[in-house]
Structures are given as C-alpha cells and as structure tokens.
Amino acid sequence: MFLKRAAARTPAAVLAADTPAEAGVPPLALGIALSILVHAFVLALHFTPDLKPKQKAKDQALEVILVNARSRQKPIDPQALAQANLDGGGTVDQDRRASTPLPVSPREKTGDQLVDTQRRVQELESQQQKLLSELKSGPALNRQEHRLEQPDPTPEQKKTLTGDEIAASAAATARNLAAIARNVDDYNKKPRKAYALTRTQEYAFARYIDDWRQKIERIGSLNYPPAARGKVYGNVTLTIEIRQDGEVASIALERSSGHKVLDDAAIRIVRMAAPYPSFPDHIRREYDILSITRTLIFARGDLVESN
C-alpha cells in the first residue's frame, strides 16, 4: 500500500521539477528589452549645429605716438609704440603723456605754394624782359600802336605841342626807360636762390640735402654743447644759405629753443661742418645759392638730429 502511493506521487513530482513553481522573466527577453530601450533613447537624441552667428572679434587699435627725444637703451616695459626708443622722460612721477590744449592746426602745403611762387616769378621775369626789349627796340612803333588804339580826341584835347614840350616828353620817356632798364639789371645781378623747406624739396636737391643732413648730425653729435649735456634739450630752427662752392653765405635763427646755449651751439655746428660739397652741375647751372630751412634737435643721449 505504501509502495503504490509513492509510485502515484512520483509522476507529479517529476512534473513539478520540470515546471517552475513561479512564472519568471527569461534573461534573454530582459536583455532584448533593455537593448531596445537604449537604442530608442539614443535615437531620440538630436545634435544640431549652432546657427547663431559668432560675433567677430574687434581688432585692437594700434596706438603710435611721436617722441621728441631718444635713448640708447630700449625700455624694458614699453608702454606705446614710437619712432624711436625712449626709456623714461618728463618731470612727473605719474604715467602721463604730453598733450596740448590747443586745437590741431591745419596742415599747410608749403611745397605747393613754393612751386607756384617760383613759377609765377619766372613768368613775371620773362614778361619783364619782353617788355624791356620792346621798349628798347621800337619806341616809335609802340607810340604808333598806342596812338592807333586811342579814340578820336575831343576839341579840348586837340592842342598843338610846342617844341620844348615835345623835347621834355622825350627826355622823360628816356629817363623812365633808363630807370626800368637799371632796375631790371639790378634784379638780374642778384643771386639765383633755391629754397629747400622742411616739407618739400626738389628731386634735384634730394641727394645734396641728405648728405648735408648726415654731416650736420655727425658733427653735431661729436660736438654736443658740454653745458647742455644731460640738462637742456630743445629744437632750434635755422635757415642756412650755401653758395655754389659749399661755403656758408648766411645763417638766420628762425625759431629759438628758449635756451641760448642751444641756439649758439646750433649756429656753431653749422659753421664747423662747413665747407659743404660744391653744387652739382645741374644745380650750378640754375642757382647760385641754396637756402635750407631745418630744425636741429638736441635730444637725450647727447644726440643732434635734423628734421
């Protein structure tokens, strides 16, 4: 009896062993479900480029200042760009830059005015020579042409001149003609000058003036005024007239530096550098004197420059 019951429960026990007691999720199905969720999340993400225009970086302003002195050593921490090295300067401790309350003055075109003036002078000289030659060669013809251009005289103007009046008129005409000729001759005897100003110089004088400048700077730096070394600085504007042979004809002080020691030193340097080279043939044929207006700069470092 006992054996039959055991045999009867054996198939059920085998069936219970083959079938899980609780319904669970298979690992493969769980993995597939997680994979689908991950792919769906990835596909849901969208990457779009930034369509907003980027603001263009502004160029930094380049500031350049002009200094009226220079130093032999470069500054360790430069504060601005300039045409020459300047390590320190001024009389105050704060960081300041020189300025002026005056408005900017208009730029003068000195070169154009000079060229126009020279051209006008040449035209007047040619007209003067033409009129003088006409007066000398044909006074009777000129009087006849002048008479033809005059309108018919009125009865009051019809007056017969006496011989003395005619002689006096002829003498006065001769005196006037002689005075005009004398003035023209005196003008022609004056030396022919060429002007080389600061802002302009004719191409024919460019090489000569550059050689002159280099010699002035060399002689001036070697003979810097001892009384002004490390103490006084400034600019002196001079007008120097040079003859054809290179000798100095005259020196005029156009603008003082405010220090007599610098003014005297500038004139002395110009005379020490003389004589200068003789004029080239193409300049000698046209001019007798070359007038140069330049500014001598007594700068820091005991240097003399020409501007």
UniProtKB/TrEMBL annotation:
One of its GO terms (molecular function) is energy transducer activity. Keywords: Cell inner membrane, Cell membrane, Membrane, Protein transport, Transmembrane, Transmembrane helix, Transport. One of its GO terms (cellular component) is plasma membrane protein complex. InterPro entries: TonB-dependent_transducer, TonB/TolA_C, TonB_C. Residues 208-307 form the TonB C-terminal domain. The keyword Iron does not apply. It is found in: Cell inner membrane. It is a single-pass membrane protein. Residues 83-113, 134-160 are annotated as: Disordered. Signal peptide: none annotated. Gene3D superfamilies: 3.30.1150.10. It comes from the Bacteria. The chain crosses the membrane at residues 28-48. One of its GO terms (biological process) is transmembrane transport. Belongs to the TonB family. This is TonB family protein. It comes from Methyloversatilis universalis (strain ATCC BAA-1314 / DSM 25237 / JCM 13912 / CCUG 52030 / FAM5).
